[in-house]
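In response to reviewer comment 3 from the previous cycle, which asked for concrete evidence that the modeling workflow produces usable outputs, we include below a single protein chain processed end to end. The sequence was submitted unchanged, and the resulting C-alpha cells are shown without manual editing.
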Amino acid sequence: KPKTEHGAVKGYLGLTITDLPPEDCARLMVPVGEAVVALEILEGSPAGKCGLRVGDVIVRMEAEGNDRWNGDRDIYLEWIQSKRPGSTITITLLRDEKTVKLQAVLEARKE
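The workflow returned the following C-alpha cells.
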C-alpha cells in the first residue's frame, strides 16, 4: 500500500499538467503562474471519470474546509497527495472560453 510519512494513503487524481504559456494567460486574463493545462489524463483515473479533458485550463482546485490550490504547478502533486482517497475536490477550469466546475473523487494511488 502506498503511504505517506504519516502512514496515511495518498490521494491520486491521474492528471499530468504543464504551465499555461504567458501569451495564453494574457488572452484568458489569468495571472501568469496561476493556471495550468491538462496534458494527460490517465484512463479510468478520477480526472478522467469527472470529465476533465486534455487542453482544459485549470485555474483552481478546492477541497473541504476552504483548502485551495491556486494553479501553482510546483505544489500541485503535493497538494493532491495531501488529500485522503475518497475526498471530493472541485476543479475550476476554462474550456472554450467558459468557466466549468467539475467534482472529482480522489482514489488511492496505485504504485
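The longest strand covers residues 88-95. We consider this sufficient to address the reviewer's concern, and the full set will be provided in the supplementary archive.
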